[in-house]
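task queued by scheduler; priority normal; single chain, no ligands, no partner chains; default sampling; output format set to C-alpha cells
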Amino acid sequence: MPVITVDSPKLTKEQKAELVKSFSEAASKIMGLPVDAMVIIIRETDPENVGVGDCLLCDLRRVKE
C-alpha cells in the first residue's frame, strides 16, 4: 500500500479533497495499482515551523510583501 505524504500550508477541506483525488489518481496510473490502495497523508505546517536557508518561512514572506 503506497503512502504519499504531503507537507503543506493550511488548506481548506475542499483543497485537501482535490489534492487527495489528484495524487491518488496520478499514483494509481503510474504504479498500476487501484486508487483505493493509495494512502495520502497531509501534514499542515505553520510557516513559523519551516526554515528555508537561515530564515523562517514566515519571515521570508514578510520580506517579500
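post-processing summary
- The chain is about 40% helix and 25% strand.
- Residues 38 and 45 are 22 Å apart (CA to CA).
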